[in-house]
Amino acid sequence: MTAETAKFDPHLASPDxxxxxxxxxxxxxxxxxxDVESVVANACKLMRIADIFEVPVLLTEQYPQGLGPSxxxxxxxxxxxxxxxxxxxxxxxxCNLEATFLDRLVELDREMTQKQSRLVVxxxxxxxxxxxIVAGIECHVCVLQTVMGLxxxxxxxxxxxxxxxxxxxxxxxxxLRSMLHMGATVASFExxxxxxxxxxxxxxxxxLNKILKE
Length: 214
Known about the structure:
The protein is of the alpha/beta class. Helices cover 45% and strands 21% of the residues.
């Protein structure tokens, strides 16, 4: 799949072909972030929802020696996950420039492509594109640069607007506009959750609903 295909191939996200990336929700950065309580609460809910749908979660920290570790609610939520999870520290703003992150992402991609159910496309069979769901901070720096790195690799990127933040609302708004222009999808974390569930008869729907109502 090419980046151009990813841009123009709308589809529902599926748990067996999704990866959640949570970027740099660290304790020394968060007090500076606009609407921070909502961003953290939503990102933690999204991780818990990924857990019930068995979606892998990748958590990063930017230069933790200077910016501190992940905020306690974030790290506690991550540590409690039963789904596959991986933690990375980085110095680069883009997650993709951290070799261990990119290696793990590509490996998960390969595993999912081999295991996922297949869809009929035209007159042949093709696996679903891998969806990378993105949360974290700052929207106009590390989130934006990560998305810019993911799109050319052919991933279908969904940025959860209510799980990302910047120091100013304007920086967040313009970063989201830029990502939309580049070909990413901007959605709420609830939209992603309901795409994973598909319908009310999903065996995990009640658990999902409880999380959303908190």
